[in-house]
Design goal:
The protein is of the alpha+beta class and 106 residues long. It has a single domain (2-96), classed as Ribosome hibernation promotion factor-like (Double Stranded RNA Binding Domain, 2-Layer Sandwich). The protein is built from two helices and four strands; from the N terminus they run βαβββα. The chain is elongated. The chain starts with a strand and ends in a 10-residue tail after the last helix.
């Protein structure tokens, strides 16, 4: 998985970049078909925003999260991405098995 991290209106420190890498490594373990992830970290006034676009086989997933500090925003972002990746993976497995996909999450 190729991971690009960009800082917008903030200095991208090594501990911040390492936190992002750690979180997205866990995401990679969930679904091996993730080819590329682009993470943008930005600060607008008092809001810290993290957003990510992940390319997986057959789809492109996007999520964003706002929080009072950047580490919390990254944690929220990865939680959202995990949910999307799991849902995408369930759909792909259901398609391979010839089943209609029905989400139990509704």
């Amino acid at each position: 998985m190729q991971l690009n991290i960009t800082g917008h209106h903030l200095d991208l420190t090594e501990p911040l970049a390492n936190h992002v890498r750690e979180k997205f490594d866990k995401l990679q373990q969930l679904h091996t078909q993730i080819t590329h992830v682009h993470v943008i970290l930005s600060v607008e006034k008092l809001a810290h925003r993290a957003e990510a676009t992940a390319r997986v086989t057959g789809a492109e997933l996007f999520a964003n999260a706002d929080a009072e500090d950047m580490y919390s925003a990254i944690d929220l972002l990865t939680d959202k991405m995990v949910r999307q990746v799991v849902k995408h993976k369930e759909k792909a497995v259901a398609r391979q098995n010839g089943d209609q996909y029905r989400s139990d999450h509704h």
